[in-house]
Amino acid sequence: MSASEKAKAKTEQLKGKVKKEAGRTVGNESAAAEGSAEESKGNLRDAKEKAKDALKD
Predict the structure, then answer these.
(1) Is 48 within 8 Å of 55 (Cβ atoms)?
(2) Which terminus of the chain, N or C, has fewer Cβ atoms within 10 Å?
(3) Residues 20, 39: contact at Cβ < 8 Å?
(4) DSSP conformation class of 36
(5) C-alpha distances in angstroms, 44 versus 9, 24, 27, 37, 39?
(6) Confidence band (pLDDT; 50, 70, 90) for 5?
(7) What is the pLDDT of residues 14-50, one digit of tens each?
(8) Cα dihedral 30, 35, 36, 38 sign
């Protein structure tokens, strides 16, 4: 996995988790949903890169 793609995935996951929890804390369901979607996007990016690595081996 390229280092930059791995960093992007981890950043998206972290930002999403923070936004999701902040939204839940203040009762903003919209922000919580956006955070959850962003976290999922990071998870998908991470999985894609892991699959690419697996195919290289």
Answers:
(1) no
(2) C
(3) yes
(4) H
(5) 8, 23, 27, 10, 9
(6) confident
(7) 999 999 999 999 999 999 999 999 999 999 999 998 9
(8) positive
